[in-house]
Amino acid sequence: MRTETRSFFDTVRPAIDSALDRLLPAEDVPPTDLHRALRYSVLAGGKRLRPALCVAAYSIYREDYRPILPIACALEMAHTYSLIHDDLPAMDDDDFRRGMPSCHKKFGEAMAILAGDALLTLTFETIAACTQFEASRLTAAIFRLARALGTRDGMISGQVLDLAAEGLKLTTLELESIHRSKTGALLSTSVWLGGWLGGADSAELDALLRFGQKIGLAFQIVDDVLDETESREMLGKTAGKDRERGKATYPALLGVDQSRRYVRDLTEQARESVRPLGRRAELLIGISEFLETRGN
Amino acid sequence: MRTETRSFFDTVRPAIDSALDRLLPAEDVPPTDLHRALRYSVLAGGKRLRPALCVAAYSIYREDYRPILPIACALEMAHTYSLIHDDLPAMDDDDFRRGMPSCHKKFGEAMAILAGDALLTLTFETIAACTQFEASRLTAAIFRLARALGTRDGMISGQVLDLAAEGLKLTTLELESIHRSKTGALLSTSVWLGGWLGGADSAELDALLRFGQKIGLAFQIVDDVLDETESREMLGKTAGKDRERGKATYPALLGVDQSRRYVRDLTEQARESVRPLGRRAELLIGISEFLETRGN
């Protein structure tokens, strides 16, 4: 990882974590079990990639990134809600997440369903409370995020397509369309939101969105490669699970080597998208390079 | 039902239903299964009580109620999300809802979890899109609704408390606190939102909220009484279920007669709360009387 990317993560990750700690209800506030489940799942670690992307995009326009922290945290809440629900027995049925028992293994299914619901609700509550931003910017941010999480090319539609595709033979295009909605929409919206609340103009917002889409796809391919090549201890979640469940993956379709080449191409395209922003985009480019090399 | 209350429902219910039809994704938009599940659950009927309360409160301040319809629909979406998730096997495990198989019986558990998630997401998307209202009013509306649906005295905390209380002997106070969050918070917020977006002043908003809290509790007691006294065909959901699951109910604690007396008292207190609004509150009072007599 580049030094400046490393030092960005070293500063921003603790800032995100402590903002999350502040925004999540305390464990001693009732219902305590539920609040324990929320904090367990959100504070379990994770790369904080969506918050980092949001902060990095915002930092193109603003010196002080603290105002964007609650928005960045809301993105992590939304991401965690999706992990909790995806891990449920009726869905991907996964017992491990971030190296620990998944939420329903630890707290039971009812609590996991409610914990996911709670985090999704808290996502919007958190954004709506950000009075440091103009209200009209906030309503647009909420609308945009809800679309990215929703059923029309958003995260939920990706999960539906993903479940429906189990055991089927997909083309690369079909697989891409699943990932564009399942992980790409939220990742690219994280970048977009940072720019939007930072004050990017409309051409810049387009560039940021394109950047987010490219690295979103690259990120998913790397994930597939890691699922194929790494052990559970490295991943913190059950490994080899995709193949076992008959899920289409990039390595299965293209092989590991060509998947890695595709990741390099996408990362280059992402870099290309933000070239008009000049040196201000270095942080985003550094993150994209970090994501690229994660899978090597 | 009073003539004017009847004629209000006769006009507003179809208006709500057609606005819901318009706001929900069409069945032929992919993922079609999921969108079918959404429409199945939302358009299955139901009293549209929360939308009606919202429209009635808005109508105190505005002649034309059409601008509030999407907000009213968002409340119904949020309510339906909660019904779908509450009916899941891991939660209340209910096979019937509104006289039909519940969402997971019809579409499977994974789809029901995602349909609930989708409706909650669409709730906030719908409100954020209401540019007919001032943006700062909207962000406050979103914040308030998220709190009512959330984990701190909101709907989710009510569901957690409700699940935890199964088989336990509760006092009337404890039962009341469950219902205040589980159904009361969303009902009272529905009234509040109508007033807030209509332009009520702060004393009026307090009065509307109090009104909503009183009828919210009355509504739940009537529900308990009906669960005890009516058949499944009348209810459209499994009857006698509360007792079977060892849930505390008002009839179990107070008996049917005293429960009904309590409903009358609460309805009277609700009426009292909005007395300062004078004749403009007649519609709300009519709805409260309709709710009261539902249980007789």
Q: How many strands appear in the DSSP assignment of chain A? A: 2
CATH structural class of chain A: Mainly Alpha
Kindly report how far apart the N and C termini of chain A lie: 13 Å
Q: Tell me about the biggest sheet of chain A?
A: 2 strands, antiparallel
Oligomer class: homodimer
Whole-number tally of structural domains of chain A: 1
Name the CATH architecture of chain A: Orthogonal Bundle
Backbone structural class of chain A: mainly alpha
CATH topology of chain A: Farnesyl Diphosphate Synthase
Average pLDDT of chain A works out at: 94
Give a description of the structure.
The structure is a homodimer of 296-residue chains. Chain A has 296 residues and is mainly α. The first copy, chain A, has one domain: Farnesyl Diphosphate Synthase. Chain A has a two-stranded antiparallel ribbon. In chain A, a hairpin with a 2-residue loop joins strand 1 and strand 2. In chain A, helix 7 runs antiparallel to helix 9, helix 9 crosses helix 10 and helix 10 packs parallel to helix 15. Chain A is globular and about 45 Å long. The relative contact order of chain A is 0.13. The mean pLDDT of chain A is 94. Chains A and B meet through helix 2, helix 6, helix 7 and helix 8 of A and helix 2, helix 6, helix 7 and helix 8 of B.
Task: Spell out the key features of this protein.
globular, homodimer, mainly alpha, two-stranded antiparallel sheet, Farnesyl Diphosphate Synthase, 15 helices
Please provide a brief summary of the model.
Two copies of one chain form a homodimer. With 296 residues, chain A is mainly α.
